[in-house]
## 1
Amino acid sequence: EVQKLNQQLEEKNGEIQQMINQPPYEKEREILRLQKTLAEKEKAQATSDVLCRSLTDETHQLQRKLASTAEMCQHLAKCLEEKQRKEKGNSDDQIATERSNQVFLQLLCLLDNETSLQALICNLREENRMLKQKVAHV
């Protein structure tokens, strides 16, 4: 294990010596290449940050919309139940309950869409983290 590490150390020292012994124009070319790579990564990071912020804003808007829709659905379901009770009596309570269940199922579908957006945001954040690590490494 020590021999292997010593060999790797010698290889790295050789690479460093090679870089030191390179003519100045090659060093400058390598520096320019690294700067260009860094600039590209910074640009990708900035784009990713903008997209992440945009998705976060959109998620918050959808959450507010979902909450107001759920509130409206509950209100409409109550109104419908009251109206049906007045018109037809107890036998139609089942129909109102079924309609309320349908509204509830629709709300669940909306919640699934929100969960998908949250997952997408998490993926973008992970990608941002990885890009930052790569930039730091460079």
## 2
Amino acid sequence: LRPITITFPRLARADGSARFAFGPISALASLSGPFPAPPAAEHPSGATLDILVRPASNIPGPSARTHAAALRAVLEAALVLARCPRTLVSVVVQALGHSVGAGAGRGRRAGKGREDVLINAAACAALCAASLPLRGVPVALSVACLPAPTASGSGAAILVLDPTDAELAAAGAAGCFAFVVGRGAAVPVWMAWR
């Protein structure tokens, strides 16, 4: 596994913020709220989540909406939104590129299939904010299923955590899985498989 780095920078107008990285792949997240929701976004039984995913460059496109849907599924399972009815919670996640001096070929570009980094950054921002109670701590990871290298070409598959680009290209299947860990159990809340 690549080294995991978590920092908590202070961002202006955010109740909590965090930068999460698997090696050179990183994301910056902020959480603000709960604060009064505009009437159109108001939900009488709980807080409304407003999630924005920004890519490393350019404007948000279909992949940003896909990442936002993944974040929504995970955060709705982890946050106790019913404690703050008629309010709004804003989550902004910015995908960041490789760090300077990163090893070549180690990981994909941020914001392109790296839901694990985006989810973990948002989870750390929610922990930092402490403005909403959590059912548990959201955690995400990527897994690839590689064929075992044998002389005959047959054998058991190998599961690889945090796969590289080369491992993903060779994988028969790969996925990202998110869990909410709390009260002695890890509950699966979201997954994407290809």
## 3
Amino acid sequence: LALYFHIGEREEKCIIEDIPSDTLLVGNYKVQRWDIHIHDFLESAPGLGMFVTVTSPTGEVLLSKLYGPQGTFTFTSYISGEHIICFQSNSTRFAVIAGSKLRIHLDIRVGEHFLDESAIRAKDKVNEVNIRLEHLIEQIHHVTREQDYEREREEKFRKTSEETNSNILWWAIVQTLILISVGIWQIKSLRDFFISKKLV
């Protein structure tokens, strides 16, 4: 996932990342500040830091740390679900003048363990094959976890759909019984009315 978004200097912006359990997430970001003189974003935002906060689906804070104008953050999920990743600058300017716009470039990678190519080159060929094989096995485990998580979500959705369909069926039956009861009551009321008026 690679994207960018705009926020105010003292504004908090959050994104939601749905990830399986026991999965590594690596995020790289870079902050650019808007320059009112050139009417464009500067290459960076020196002196400005970013608070990065990550919250699990249960509301537990997994990460809360102040980084610089660009940085890398990582965390490992311990349960499946929607994790909330929030960004907020550490600007200390007053709200009146802290209206400068920031652009955040964000690159998120889920389940990737990066190979250190320099370390691999320093090893002999056998170790290189071993390291690459371990990396491949880790990637396979990640794909397996992703598939298991998707199956769990699909099963949950199917159960919810079945419960909804069942409820709709029972509600239709109840409505039908109510309509039949009202119809019978109306027919009986009309019959009693006609009999009392000696029309039949």
